[in-house]
Amino acid sequence: MSATDPDSAWIAAALAASRPRVIAALLRAFRDLDTAEEAYHEAVLRALRTWPRTGPPRDAAAWLILVGRNAALDGKRRRVRETPLPPEEALSDRDDAEAALAERMDASAYRDDILRLLFICCHPELPATQQIALALRIVSGLSVARIARAFLASEAAMEQRITRAKGRIARSAVPYEAPGPAERAERLGTVSAMVYLVFNAGYSAGTGTERAALCEEAIRLGRLLLRLFGSDPEVMGLMALMLLQHARTPARFDAEGAIILLDDQDRGLWRRPMIAEGLALVDKAMRHRAPGPYQVQAAIAALHARAARPQETDWAGIDALYATLERLQPSPVVSLNRAVATAKIGGPAAGLARVEPLAKSLNGYFHFHGLRGALLMQLGRDGEARAAMGRAIALAGTAAEAAHIRMQLDRLSRDAERPWKKRSARVSGAARPARPWGEAARKPGDAAEEERTRMSQNPETAPAPVKGGLVAYLTVDGALKAAEFYARAFGAETVTAMPADEQGRTMHVHLHVNGSSLMLSDAYPEHGHPFRDPQGFNLTLMVDEIDARYARAVEAGATAVMPPTEMFWGDRYGQLRDPFGVLWAMNQQKR
Amino acid sequence: MLYAILCYKDEDVVAAWTEAEDAAVMARLGTVHERLERQGKLGPSLRLLPTTAATTLRKGGEPPLVIDGPFAETKEQLLGFYVVDVADLDEALAIARDLAAANPGGAYELRPVLLYNPDPRMPDPRKAAG
């Protein structure tokens, strides 16, 4: 049966749609996750046998609950004495038992069951990673292998993580009675946070497939919450936030999988139906006049979504929304986000005025120094800007963060050539959507792209094209000299180069060599990046005409290490060392 | 004779479709739509967002009450509709059967149209044809 075969697709969709309700009800019946899961799997097996013959039951969830419960009881009973219950084949569409159960399982019963199930999965004693893994396994029914792939963990490690979480829950007191209104609200908040964690895990996951799987699961869980708590504005906000962010997915990555900044995304690729749904939910939520962090973040995402072009972004609205978010959820990171919007509307000095007071709390945060450096550079305060950028690079926690800052440096060195005035914010009052809550609003949900966007203040400048999905970044002694040498020896072209400081050092040079990007910087010992002799690698150029290319490099000043030779694998191959100590190789493939 | 074909389906099931499954259903329906269009039988048609995006205005009281969500909580929800121009109920049912084959599950409600106001922003195709 193929997934798109109309005769069988309904079974898969009906099973997926009813899973959380069925598991939740079975959990209430058996008060044990493992028993509930086993009973569910038995019910699914029977459904796959029965439904193709009988057609869809009137209420798939009720059918599965009844059959799952009977199967589990049957198993127990069989163990006691061999007297089975009547087979589920006898259950027809109009079976009284199923109908009666469906009547009893009205919306409120489902609601408490599912909320209990979700709440158990995000039990406060469990670390966030276990909460997410458990929810994806139990509620969404993703396979352990799939979850492991999404979190770059081994299947065995993920299995263990889930088993441990279950054990912890079994040992602790889990409330099975229906929660009171206050407790329900509290649980809903915890559950919303877990759903958003799942979404964020997907949003930043490594590969496209896993990204889609986790984001879609989070959206499905969000829909479930929204169906059950249809008038809670924060649940609407959460759902809208996820939809508006996920709508951009087709535009967020280039063919090589590199991230495309919000300002540079092809907005024609954004998924319109998701945006329409997200905007509708933001509108609905605002009517309640009860702003919360998810709503405010969704409202900010909505302002981005409503801008047909980056230049039409309502930065004044976004600034106001961040102000609201600063009130609702005060945090220096939120204030930093606000500074970006402020800079867009009031210029770099106004942005910097918001950034400076955050120095104390964000001194160890690399985005703080990155933004500060960008604003200083626009103000022409080059020396301070360079120092800030150096701090940012030194603080980068991951290679990706460091690379990201360097990409920004690439852009900034271009932006710096343009006076800010020329690209003054074009936000007009025209066609601006009604501002939700008096003055302003919002927080860091959109971290991914906005963090990246915020450093570049000029949407009209195209970024230097980075070639290749894996870029070598060398720390050399004399990056600007190295760039010159690589031009002579290997025909490199300089795409961008940050100007030298007083000591002749540069923080960033971007070259194109032989069809790939190569990036260079000098060492900055005072920022924790001392110079080290390059060793343990070589940079291999895949070339035609190897002998001519090799000769040119040697003539330019490289030292021959191994002249081009036919190798045992059939290619012609040679090595040489450049004056900066970097080992290069050239390889001409056998035809 | 104009008939409205109201499309009811469990929106949780529709939401459980993958993008590819959704596209496959839309493609199968597209084949039916094209044929109806060629035959001049297809009027306006819409697909609605989920009922979670719906708001209901209850007109009983003063002022009318605004409620989040659809008019009625049902197992299957109104997810869209077609207007078709047919000779009789049998022909409308035949169309509904073709749509059902392309998109199984749920139900179609066939309702004869009493008053049809074409979109005033568009030229009326019937006048143009006449």
TrEMBL record, chain A:
Residues 440-454 have a biased composition (Basic and acidic residues). It holds the Pfam family Sigma70_r4_2. Gene3D superfamilies: 1.10.1740.10, 3.30.720.110, 3.30.720.120, Winged helix-like DNA-binding domain superfamily/Winged helix DNA-binding domain (1.10.10.10). Residues 415-464 are annotated as: Disordered. One of its GO terms (biological process) is DNA-templated transcription initiation. Residues 467-589 form the VOC domain. One of its GO terms (molecular function) is sigma factor activity. This is VOC domain-containing protein. It comes from Methylobacterium symbioticum. The lineage of its organism: Bacteria, Pseudomonadati, Pseudomonadota, Alphaproteobacteria, Hyphomicrobiales.
TrEMBL record, chain B:
InterPro entries: Dimeric_a/b-barrel (IPR011008), YCII (IPR005545). Pfam families: YCII (PF03795). Gene3D superfamilies: Dimeric alpha+beta barrel (3.30.70.1060). Residues 1-114 form the YCII-related domain. Transmembrane segments: none annotated. Belongs to the YciI family. This is YCII-related domain-containing protein.
